[in-house]
Design a protein that fits this description.
254 residues, 13 helices, Transferase(Phosphotransferase), domain 1
Length: 254
Amino acid sequence: SRFYRSPEVILGHPYDVAIDMWSLGCITAELYTGYPLFPGENEVEQLACIMEVLGLPPAGFIQTASRRQTFFDSKGFPKNITNNRGKKRYPDSKDLTMVLKTYDTSFLDFLRRCLVWEPSLRMTPDQALKHAWIHQSRNLKPQPRPQTLRKSNSFFPSETRKDKVQGCHHSSRKADEITKETTEKTKDSPTKHVQHSGDQQDCLQHGADTVQLPQLVDAPKKSEAAVGAEVSMTSPGQSKNFSLKNTNVLPPIV
């Protein structure tokens, strides 16, 4: 993979495990930003991307490279190239802080020790494990989530509140319609309305009284004389309601 290729591999130097530390620095920077640190289209631009951030390599590093003529002229200056998008890259024109957009000194120091031209001066894996940035990341404790205060009316879920509000509006509209309809009917036929209200009240009373009850033992029947006396004590208008109310008076359950 070209984006994570170390400069000694590109220039034709002998290489060892130090190439993995270079790749580690490139991958760590990409995990932080989401973009490759050195996105070269080919090996020439790849080296140009590295020089754009790290500057020119040491002169001795260039002279001992077997592929130096591909990337540098006879005086050791990099060859000017233009990529497919018409962009030119100039050495030492960017800073690692500007590219990563961070001022975390420990993180930047870790990356700078990985991205060193000379493989012998590059940070080793054992040194990386002892770096302050690694131990700082391990010592971080999860922060408690802040508890946000809510209003008193948010004890119910939003859907429940919405249903309650819609139910209130619906009930108020229905009550207004019933009131309007009742008023119109009252104007047309007062007697019919009163009779209808009475029938409706009787139906409601009858529906409330007809409650299913467990099976009871037949109570002893009253004599006809006692029944006639109770009927005679009530007025004709109250006889119906009296008989319905008496249905609630039940004999004791055996």
